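Section 3.1: Structural characterization of target chains.
Under the original work plan, the team committed to producing a structural model for every single-chain target entering the pipeline before any wet-lab resources were allocated. The record below documents one such target. The sequence was received from the expression subgroup and is listed exactly as submitted; it comprises 463 residues.
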Amino acid sequence: MSRYMISVVLTAMTLSGCASYQPIPLTDKAVAKRLSEPNMRDVRIKAGQIEHSILKPIEFDDRDGLSPDEVAILAVLVNPRLQAIRDSRAIANAQLFQAGLLPNPQLSYNMDFPTGGNTDGRVNAFGLGLDWDVGSLITHQQKIDAAKTHTDSVNLEIAWQEWQVAEAAKLHVYRLVIARKRLALAKQIKDERENDLTAITNAVEMGERKSLDLSASSNAMEQSKLTLLEAYDKERQEQFALNRVIGLSSEKVIPLQQGINIPSCANTPSVAKAADGIENCRLDLLALKAGYQSQEAKVMAAVKSQFPRINIGLSNGRDTDNIKTVGFGVTIELPFFNQNQGRIAIERATRQQLFDEYTLRLFDAQSKIAAVLSSLQYTRDRIGTIKASIPTLNQMLHSYEAAVKTGNADILSYYHILDDLYKKKFELLKLEDRQAQLSIAFEIATGKYLPNSNRTVKKEIAK
């Protein structure tokens, strides 16, 4: 090998990168470690340092149970789906880094050996060339701009997904609280029916009650058992749902703070006020805006790419007659057939698609706000009506209870009124569950917390 070839090889090796391969084996041990329960000490530290467009750092303390906001932060820090989504941030940053790199120059070397004919006095010929694509400078800035705004879009989309998970965690906290209220009510009914059955059984044996009363009481007891089983199952399913959205095993029991209040939504704004400025609050809309700006830069880069590709180069060589030459060359692409029309059309169509998607998403958000507020108003009215009817039913129940004891009313009528009262209480819990869902839906639709004086929160940490 000639000294020229050795120089070329050494130069290429010197200029080459030094990245090395680092394997990450997908083993059961590695997966189990990633899915292991979080260290609460680490969670406390991260909860006070969280950086998010909507979620604020809080003083995380699980020793007295978790508030809805603490559960929301815990879900954002632990949820495995979010951990996978955040990997797209590293990809976007790598793409931004790649966009800033200019294409490498091309170094070429060739050698010719005289092998036939009159070879007297002939020497080995060689050629050394260095070429670079000058045309890459034309679209370089647009590629960087597109990558930067794409990174912004990815970060906003990640923040939107985190917000969704946080809201889902809060909702399941409220629903679990309601499920436990339903379970407590079902236990109360079952205990009351059991006591009634015992008392009526004794009364029948003493001849003070009829067998019809015993049958009615037994039937009521069986119904209370079914209601209790349903309440147990509902409470268990809500616990599973909460664990799933946080990212904990199904066996883990989340300690909740005592006295968590369900959002009452008493001070909801008008539709116009709630929808005003949502394009600057909804993180998904901001992500689409950034994505649209990224696409604008791609369209501009595609248009500029119509400029003919130009390569310039320097050369140094020697022919077989030992004549040495130094020169330069220019290569220009002639755009006879391909003027980049296809790429321009694709980028423009993608831009139009993003524009229409943003418009549709904004329209859907405004429509969602109106629908949620309407449902909230209906739910509040229903809750008010049921709460107003409960005192009347309680009064009737006491009257019938007294009449049953004196023999002026049958026990079936008493149980009918008692069933109506319990149905109202169960319906009230169902409406509270619906109100909690609508409250979270409103927060998601507007991209901000719903003003609620009854919210149980812990102290926020000032940044």
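The chain has a mean pLDDT of 85.
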